[in-house]
Each structure stands twice: as C-alpha cells, then as structure tokens.
Amino acid sequence: MASFDQLSAKQIAAGVAAGAFSATEVARAALDAIDAREPRVGAFLQVTPELALDAARRVDEARAKGEKLGALAGVPVAVKDNMNLVGTRTTCASRMLENYESPYTATCVQRLLDAGAVPVGKTNMDEFAFGSSTESSAFHRTNNPWDTERVPGGSSGGSAAAVAAGEVPLTLGSDTGGSIRQPAALCGVVGLKPTYGAVSRYGVVAFGSSLDQVGPFARTVEDAALAMNALVGAGRDPLDSTSQDCPVDFLEHLEDPVEGMRVGYIPSLMEAEGLTPEMRAAMRKAMDAFTDQGAELVEIELPHMDAAIAAYYVIGPAEAFSNLARFDGIRYGYQEEGCATLAEQSAASRAHGFGAEAKRRQMLGAYLLSSGVYDEYYFAAQQVRTLITQDYARAFERVDVVLMPASPRTAFKFGEISDPTQMYLSDVFTVSLNIVGNGGVSVPLGLGEESGLPVSAQLVGPAFKDRRLLTFARALERAAGARGTVAPDFAGKGGELA
Questions:
Q1: Does 80 participate in catalysis according to the annotation?
Q2: Which residue in 3, 136, 155, 426 is the catalytic one?
C-alpha cells in the first residue's frame, strides 16, 4: 500500500491512463486523506464526494471505451471558494454569501474538469480575499500544515494548505496582491500567478478587477505547468474581455538549462526593513543556485517599488468598493429580516453580512473614490502604476527574470499581527506584480535553519513569458531539492492506493 500523496499530479494522470489504478480509487484515496487530515488543517469549506466520484466514474468509463483522456484525468483538485462550481456553494468565506449556490461553473474550473480533473471541494480563504493570513474567514481558521499554530498565509490559505498537507496535488487560488505567492511561500509549495489575462476570470467573484488573476498551487513546478496547460490550452475565453490567447505548451521547455541566462536581483531588497535573516539566507541560496547552473546575476533597480504598497492600497480598495456594492441584501447575499424600508434592510444586511476587514476595505474604497479625494489619491496611484510598469519594462531589457523574496518572513502565529497596516506589509514583495500585470512564481527552497519552517523565493517574468518563468522556477527547484514535499506530520496519513 502507498499513500497517494507520494504521487504528483502528472504521475496520477499517467497511472490512471496506464490502468495502474482507477480514477475512482484515486478519488476515494483523496477523500480519505481529506477526512483524516482536515480536523487538524481546516483547508476546506466544502468537500464534494458526490461530484468527485461522479467525475472519476466518467474518467474510468472513458478509459474503458478507449477514448483519449485529458492531461489531468483522475487528478483530484480543489478550488478557492470564490470560484463558481455547479453543485457547490460559493461563499467567499463570508456570511454575506453563506448560502449562495453556484449557478454556473467558472471558466478556469471548467477547463480543469474538461482536462479530466476530479473536483473534491472548495477551499477556505480570507473573506472576499481581503487578507494575508486566512484569519478573516467567517467560518473557521486554516492551519499551516508545517505548524498548526501558525497561519498558512492568505488570502488563498486553504488552497496552499491543502497541497502542503497532501490532501490534493493541485488547487486553484486567486492572486490580487500576492494571494497565491505569499501562502505558497508560507506553506512550502509552488504558487504561480500568471500574467494578467492569461487565465480567464469569468465566474470568479471579483475583488480588484484590474489586479485579480487565477493560478495554480502544486508541490512541483511540473504540476503547475501541467495545470497551466489545462487553464489556457483552449485559448481566449470570450466571456472575459481581458482574456488573451497563450498558445504555448508550458511543459515543452521546462527542463531547459538556464546557463547564460540573466537573473536580475535588487541589492536594496536584501536589506529591506522587515526581511528576516532566514529570508535573506533563502535569497542567497537562490542566487547561488542560479550561478551554479551558469546563469549570470545582474544588479537592477526598481526605483518606484517602495510606492507599490501605497498604490495597491488605493487601487485595490477602490475596485473592491465598486465590486462589492452589488451585495446589498436585496439582489444578492445575506438578508436582514424585520426592516421597515429597503434602505434599512440594505444597511443592516451589509453591517451583519460582512466581516470587519471587508467593511474596512469598502469604507476605504468609498472614501478614496469620493469627490475631492479621487484626484489626490486614486489618480496619483494610477500614475505610480505607470511608473512601476516602466521600471519593470526597463529591467527586462537587461534580464530574463527578476529574483526577489516572496514573503518578508516565515509563517507567523495566529493573532501575532493584529494591526491591519502591519498585516498589509505581508504583501510588500508581491503587490507590484499585480499593479503591472506580470507573472510571478513562488518556489520552495527547503526549511529555515532557525524556525524549521518553509522558506521560498519569488521569480518575476515579463508579461506573457510565463513559460520561460517556469523554466527558471524548475531550475531553482532542481537546485533546492525541495520538490514534492508534504508537511511531515501529514505525509502518508489517510489516502492509500493499492
């Protein structure tokens, strides 16, 4: 007997295609693993055994008929609970949408299903994706599998934790300011934010429409590339006006050498305030890994990067205020009873349906878009956005990728950061990519010597060069030797395959 968490997504798909085991056996193993591990992890808001077993049965029937199987045939997947999937609730971890039944399936989720993936559930998140620790979920906390007294990061903390705990080999998250890359770093898994427009956002509940992007979590770079092939392989989604064609095979050049390629690094970031010694050591390890493989390190500067966090917390709340205005307790969402007028009902529904952080972001957005304030802050933030975009463009004239931290620290304890502004600084190294739209990936580098917790590095690529970005990520993964790691307290516990 072997635990299915020892297998990558690619190995599972290959095993199902070869008849080494059935998709139904894999689905049952995944559900068993979730059942055994969830009491200590809390990664899921909803587990969907009926959907999983039905999808697995269809894969097995297709194989029995000799039909061609998809690249993810039989692979258990879970998706963040801001993505619609028929047969599930889409709650965004909020009381406001606690009972909202998905009326359709998001394009990104449908493309995984079309590739043969088996949906096992919806993962926990910060409410409406507002947070960096998954502590703002209205329902329960998600624990970091490496230390269950610490946060998994956020806002896609459930998706990161589910992979790190070996419950599933692949999940989807959304990234508005670092919400894939930061939890991936804290949980020691691979997390890819593709270029804005590479993956359809249709059917994903919006936070910041000019910032949001969907991407995969995996234990290996290869599995992330496999997921990307499914997410973009069908071409542009006409249901999302920002969707673009990405006609590449993300696996094709994955093992290419990086010898002679140029890796940019920013010396000032090595001394950035709040960057812990462990994370500095991780950066040095990543730099050495590239030079050992023949890549050239090039000093670069992003002069306006210090302004990114300020610009993000103007643009993000402004867009969030606009996007969440629809949840008024009349057309959508939690509805307060016993109110005399529609105005009273809407006010009471929003007051009781939204949590503290969701209210904070919307109130900030309302202020930033108000008369007399808009020109001073919102317009200035958009100007800063242009300057940062220009900084990256100049940098990529000199280098192929940029290396920087994914997080200023390893996973922190629950309740350790109570000041919202300090929590916002958790994304200080990630938000600039969302502002400019470039792709970025968090790659695990093993464990910190002092904390014993996962440490990672972030790689940033030019827009729509995500395949090349993954080539560098794979090179870093090879050198780090951290491939396919499941948190040891959870490895092999529940989820056996014959």
A1: yes
A2: 155
Apex 159 CA angle, 263 and 23, nearest 5? 105
Catalytic residue, chosen from 80, 174, 349, 442, is: 80
> What CATH number should be reported for the domain holding residue 174?
3.90.1300.10
Catalytic-residue membership of 155:
yes
| 121 belongs to a structural domain | yes
Q: Residue 260 half-sphere exposure, CB side, CA atoms within 13 Å?
A: 2
Q: What is the pLDDT along the chain (498 residues), one digit of tens a residue?
A: 568 899 999 999 999 999 999 999 999 999 999 999 999 999 999 999 999 999 999 999 999 999 999 999 999 999 999 999 999 999 999 999 999 999 999 999 999 999 999 999 999 999 999 999 999 999 999 999 999 999 999 999 999 999 999 999 999 999 999 999 999 999 999 999 999 999 999 999 999 999 999 999 999 999 999 999 999 999 999 999 999 999 999 999 999 999 999 999 999 998 898 999 999 999 999 999 999 999 999 999 999 999 999 999 999 999 999 999 999 888 888 998 889 999 999 999 999 999 999 999 999 999 999 998 999 999 999 999 999 999 999 999 999 999 999 999 999 999 999 998 899 999 999 999 999 999 999 999 999 999 999 999 999 999 999 999 999 999 999 998 866 679 999 988 888 886
In terms of pTM, does the model score above 0.85? Answer: yes
The secondary structure of 360-411 as a DSSP string is HHHHHHHHHTSTTTHHHHHHHHHHHHHHHHHHHHHHTTT-SEEEE-S-SSSP
Q: Is residue 358 part of a domain?
A: no
| List 179, 243, 442, 456, catalytic entry | 179
**Does a structural domain hold residue 422?**
yes
Question: What total of structural domains would you count in the chain?
Answer: 1
Contact 60, 23 (CB under 8 A): yes
Instruction: Provide the residue range defining the domain that includes 63.
Output: 2-264+398-497
- To the query of whether residue 268 is one of the catalytic residues in this protein, the response is no
Identify whether 220 is part of a domain: yes
Q: Whole-angstrom Cα distance, residue 464 to residue 415?
A: 38
- Yes or no: say if 305 and 458 are a contact pair by the CB < 8 Å rule: no
